[in-house]
């Protein structure tokens, strides 16, 4: 009886080779030949599962993001059955910080992709018009759904990520800065009665 092939496992195995190369030397090292060697599979298998090199890079990124989203959902679920919006938002923002080895490796790979997207129009064009789902989620969790604050929080948090990866900022300080912003955004609004009016 022929052995069943787990195609998803094969795709993930190949994607993991892309991630290792990207994290250690950038996407320039992630050629079809180098990825095949890193994965220990024939180059034609990469083409079978992903197609072109561009499709391989984007497919590997999609799998990486899917893994990151699954980890993030687990951490949000650990907050309990009915967490406060502030706690959910804090958990979402902390996903952008390299607080453990899994997140650190994921962010290193994302940095390699960022550089590639800046220099390759074809790759950049394929992601430029992606729907702003993350920004929408952050805005939904904020009081009054402030989209400007959501955009600023996301940009600020990704800036902290880079500083942490470079060793310029400690995890404790990055978390403190995020908490300070959340305290500001979730502070109770002064009502006239509170001011003795």
Automatic annotation (TrEMBL):
The keyword Transcription applies. Gene3D superfamilies: Tetracycline Repressor, domain 2. It comes from the Bacteria. The keyword Protein biosynthesis does not apply. Residues 8-68 form the HTH tetR-type domain. InterPro entries: BetI_C, Homeodomain-like_sf, HTH-type_TetR-like_transc_reg, HTH_TetR, Tet_transcr_reg_TetR-rel_C_sf. Residues 31-50 bind DNA. One of its GO terms (molecular function) is transcription cis-regulatory region binding. SUPFAM superfamilies: Homeodomain-like, Tetracyclin repressor-like, C-terminal domain. Keywords: DNA-binding, Repressor, Transcription, Transcription regulation. Signal peptide: none annotated. PANTHER family: HTH-TYPE TRANSCRIPTIONAL REGULATOR BETI, HTH-TYPE TRANSCRIPTIONAL REGULATOR RUTR. This is Transcriptional regulator. It comes from Actinoplanes utahensis. The lineage of its organism: Bacteria, Bacillati, Actinomycetota, Actinomycetes, Micromonosporales.
């Amino acid at each position: 009886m022929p052995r069943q092939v787990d195609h998803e496992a094969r795709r993930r195995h190949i994607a993991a080779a892309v991630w290792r190369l990207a994290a250690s030397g950038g996407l320039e090292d992630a050629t079809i030949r180098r990825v095949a060697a890193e994965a220990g599979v024939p180059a034609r298998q990469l083409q079978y599962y992903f197609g072109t090199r561009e499709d391989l890079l984007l497919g590997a990124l999609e799998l990486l993001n899917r893994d990151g989203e699954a980890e993030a959902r687990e951490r949000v679920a650990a907050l309990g059955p009915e967490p406060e919006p502030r706690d959910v938002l804090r958990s979402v923002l902390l996903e952008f910080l390299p607080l453990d080895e899994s997140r650190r490796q994921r962010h290193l790979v994302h940095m390699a992709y960022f550089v590639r997207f800046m220099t390759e129009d074809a790759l950049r064009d394929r992601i430029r018009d992606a729907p702003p789902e993350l920004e929408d989620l952050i805005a939904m969790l904020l009081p009054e759904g402030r989209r400007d604050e959501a955009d600023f929080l996301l940009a600020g948090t990704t800036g902290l990520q880079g500083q942490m990866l470079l060793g310029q900022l400690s995890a404790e300080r990055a978390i403190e800065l995020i908490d300070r912003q959340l305290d500001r955004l979730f502070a109770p609004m002064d009502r006239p009665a509170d001011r003795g009016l």
